[in-house]
Amino acid sequence: MSTATRIYKPEQELFIEGTPSTSLFIIRKGAVSIRKVKGKHFVEVAKITSNEVIGELSFFDRQPRSATAVALVEVEAIEISFDAMEKIYNSIPDYMKTIAAAMAERLRKANDQIRLLQKEHS
């Protein structure tokens, strides 16, 4: 699979927190809840809608999924495998790869900091 259009029903998971990452998604139609596990429940940390991308952080740092993505309504998404992305990524200059990796690392650290702050205030 390099790219594939997928349809998700309401409450169907696109991916699950902690699982290995192999692709990213462009949401074409619908809405997706990005959720973090909190005890036996979850906290919605973002709502993603048409023409937004999810799962992109893991392309740069190859870390497991940092959250779960769940369709809120019927969702049409384009799934793009990291293998397909790699072909394009390998053609860009090394300095751009360094910039992208640094941005991904900063964003993941910011997400971790937000999580810590939420724990302190709950």
Keywords summarizing the entry:
about 120 residues; alpha+beta; four-stranded antiparallel β-sheet; 8 strands; flat
Give a verbal description of the structure:
The protein is an alpha+beta fold and 122 residues long. It has three helices and eight strands, in the order E-E-E-E-E-E-H-E-E-H-H. It has helices at residues 57-61, 82-89, 94-120; strands spanning 3-8, 13-15, 23-29, 31-38, 41-49, 53-54, 68-71, 75-81. Strands 1-8-3-6 form a four-stranded antiparallel beta sheet. Strands 2-7-4-5 form a four-stranded antiparallel beta sheet, with no helix packed on it. Strand 4 (31-38) and strand 5 form a beta hairpin. It is flat.
Write the layout of secondary structure elements.
Blueprint lengths: L2 E6 L4 E3 L7 E7 L1 E8 L2 E9 L3 E2 L2 H5 L6 E4 L3 E7 H8 L4 H27 L2
Antiparallel strand pairs: 1-8, 2-7, 3-6, 3-8, 4-5, 4-7
**How many separate helices?**
3
Q: Kindly, what is the distance between the CA atoms of the first and last residues, rounded to a whole number of angstroms? A: 42 Å
Radius of gyration: 15 Å
The helix-strand sequence is EEEEEEHEEHH
The low-pLDDT segments are none
Q: How does the overall form come out from the CA principal axes? A: flat
Strand coverage percent: 35-45%
- Largest beta-sheet details: 4 strands, antiparallel
Tell me roughly what share of residues is in helical segments: 25-40%
Number of strands: 8
Average pLDDT: 90
| Quaternary organization | single chain
Largest sheet, spatial ordering of strands:
1-8-3-6
Q: Would you tell me the structural class of the helices and strands?
A: alpha+beta
